[in-house]
Amino acid sequence: MCGAAALAPGEALAHASERGFVLLLPTGHYFVGGALAVAASFAVLWLVPAGALGKLASRRATLAGRMPDLRTATGWISLAVLAILVAAGWLGSRDPLSNPLPLVVWTLFWIGLTMATGVFGNLFDWLDPWRGPARLFGRAGERSAPAWLERLGYGLAIVQFAAFAWFELVYPAPDDPARLACAVSIYWLANFAGVLAVGHDPWTRRCEPFSVFFRIVSKLAILERSEGRLRLCLPGGKLARVEPLPLSGALFLLLVLGSVSFDGLMRTFAWLGAIGVNPLEFPGRSAVMVENTVGLVLVPAAFAAAFFVSVWAGEKLSGEPLPLARAAGTLVWSIAPIALAYHFAHYLIALLVNGQYALAAISDPFSRGWNLFGTADNYISAGLVMGPAAAWVLWNLQAAAIVGAHVLAVILAHMLSERLHGSSQAATRSQIPLTILMILYTVLGLWLLATPTGA
Hints:
single chain, about 450 residues, 20 helices, mainly alpha
């Protein structure tokens, strides 16, 4: 059934999370201001006493005492909801704006849950649809990973996320409910096989990409669950004592950031012109699959290369060079706020509009005229993001997120570098190339949001 759905001819449906509005504002002063803000934050760090950032990041305030661990129960509920959504993908409407599966996957899960995780912590750990079945089959709990899995590192997570990004950004019809239902089913089954083979914790720790991604993003959250207690911390405070990522883990995070950046680039007049497509006569996704596949490979690869070169150059400047793998594995954590902020900025409009469609669709998942949650007849207000006033507010929110994240990234990089080198002066010198990269990426991020799009 899945093979037939994937091979069946059909129109190339627009992605439910594509940006539908272009913010044509005078943005040059934002570019300059954003770059100066990031540069100024680096300059101010010269005046911060050694170890002060680490001490500040380690502060916690307890909000609640011991809480019960209900993750197995919530995991079963999550799996049941997923099964209903997949059934809706096969049996419900073919319209991606009225079928709940594409709206939940692309809008509430990929956009909304990522944003919520960056604030509240690892919510996906409570929604994990493999935890319940793993416990049922005796494959839950802490287990040592087999040697072959340790050698692979995050390799399987990289492969699976690359496949997800290709399906989202390149495949002609990622919103077709039946095809998406097939993809989700295959994905769940493949990872469940991995859970059965090596155990739930080893597999989700290194191989299942969303478990890995949300765990990384949760390090930025202001809430922390530790020893059953709920604590309040500063944004990024959990990174004060984080372990370095292996090379494969660093590549995974850079792949995520690069793929979201390419999601913005692939619709710009600049990219479409470069691949010989008239932006005002876009021929559809199927006509540019090869070009976009190449772009999806090159953009993350270019950003990864720039990051590793910056870290290598920084270590040379520090006067106390450390092994590149150790330095990069530690400093890559400072990229996490940039990944989260660009996710927020790039997908904010889609969340505001398609989120309304999602709330309506979940009340009538099979298009039977139901109104389970009283939201089926909600009025969809696209005007929420239209007009000069909305454009001004949205642009400033997006710009503030990108600039603020890069400032936080500079601060976190300095804190992590201090921990590496044990010297504030060496840490500051080592951050000069990485700060330059962050300044350039700030300008690129703002340009991607402001430039006209044609697809």
